[in-house]
Amino acid sequence: MRLVRFAPSFPRALYFSWQMLRGLPALARAADVVHVHGAWTFPVWWGCCCALRAHKPLVMSPRGALNPLYLKHSAWKKGLVGWLDRAVLRRSAVIHATAVCERDWVRAYLGTCDVEIAVIPNGVEVREVLKCESSKALKLGEAESANHANRSNSAFSLQPSAFSLDAARTRTVLYLGRLHPLKGLDLLTAAWRQVVTVHPQWRLLIVGPDEQGVLHRLEQQAREQGLEQSVSFGRSVSGEEKKRLFAETDLFVLPTRSENFGIVVAEALACGIPVITTKGAPWQELENCENALMRECVNEGDGNKAIRQSGNQAFQPVRAGWWVDIGVEPLAEALREAMGLTDEERHAMGKNGRKLVESKYRWEKVAGRMSEVYERCVDAEMR
Hints:
Blueprint: H1 18-30, E1 34-37, H2 42-53, E2 58-61, H3 68-72, H4 75-90, E3 94-97, H5 100-110, E4 116-119, H6 126-129, H7 131-140, H8 144-153, E5 171-176, H9 185-195, E6 202-207, H10 214-224, E7 231-234, H11 239-247, E8 251-254, H12 263-270, E9 275-278, H13 295-298, H14 302-305, E10 321-324, H15 328-339, H16 343-360, H17 363-382
Parallel strand pairs: 1-2, 2-3, 3-4, 5-6, 5-8, 6-7, 8-9, 9-10
């Protein structure tokens, strides 16, 4: 793979670049297919223009830009240039959507359109991300003293002094991602207040970069609701730090108001972590992933006997998590169910999620499907 960078230029509005203006046409002429990601910016418009001028097949991935909630932000600006985005989308060979909901957003934005819309999810680098699942499996059988040592020494005891609970019994609910109003973290904090008194051995970690002052509002909400001892906030993480954080997580939650995919859900599932997310994200298969089930969860026999069960009806062999309505009460109910399961039951659900990712979301499979799209574009151009 060859990576070409173009330096930004004045005026920086819309990510303008004189280098890109001069250099991109030659790259487009040398390509077989031009694939452009995003909307509303100069690189998108100029990339599409270069592809069309060079008579090259154009593939466009809006990447959530046509989400109706995003369209309301700076609506007058997007209204002024919307004709340009619609024009290049309609002249594309293929429009790529990451989920059915994004396909519907494209159709609503364009109205009538004969362009093929290929629904292909984002992918996960399974070989790297699954390392943390092995770590979780080892921890499941560790003695309480070893568990205490691991949690106390971890780089992700973000604010250890904030927790007065016995670390050997502490379980972790994690949110990892941008701290943005659309992510629904205010809903999660309100839901947490309802459940933590019943499950005092749990903590909530909210980790990620702050946007639009959300962190300050969440910290204030936590103080006002008396949650300082069970809710903590951490900086953005990546690489090995991110893997270690997933390895310490018992339950992942994405309380989003709207999402075109939610790659962090796939990453959590790949690490064997059961997930709670809302119907604002396209993850309905969390509640019925039969094609990805591990055999010992569905057979009535020795496999099920190996799982210490709580009697909680929330534990079902076909589940990898919860897909609930957007709101405080649905999130609180899902948290109650998940936190009421045994470690073994949550681990079994996490294995379902890992199998789901391995069968559908690993990069090798996703890249293969995208390659088929490129090949169809080239074949159609040659006819």
